[in-house]
């Protein structure tokens, strides 16, 4: 399982990056990059929190 972003919906507000800065990063053009998308034991909680708290519901966990 991995987390994915819908770039058409993301508004680059950085909420996910604030929750999990080692996983999500905005570049200088405000494009969100997911550096570590795979849900592992040590990242799943952070990723699920970011998915739940994205104000635009732009993140989803996919197979
Ligand atoms: S929290 Fe959602 S809208 Fe904000 S940067 Fe992350 S994916 Fe985009």
Q: Structural class, judged by helices and strands?
A: alpha+beta
Q: Could you tell me which ligands this complex binds, including any ions or cofactors?
A: iron/sulfur cluster
**CATH topology label:** Alpha-Beta Plaits
Helical segment count: 2
Q: Give, in order, the helices and strands.
A: EHEEHE
Proportion of strand residues: 15-25%
Would you write up a description of this structure?
This protein is of the alpha+beta class and about 60 residues long. It has a single domain, classed as Alpha-Beta Plaits (2-Layer Sandwich), CATH 3.30.70. It contains 2 helices and 4 strands; from the N terminus they run E-H-E-E-H-E. It has helices at about 15-20, 45-55, and strands at about 1-5, 25, 30-35, 60. The longest helix has 10 residues, at about 45-55. It is globular, with a radius of gyration of 10 Å. The chain starts with a strand and ends with a strand. The relative contact order is 0.35. Bound molecules: iron/sulfur cluster. Iron/sulfur cluster binds near residues 13 and 15.
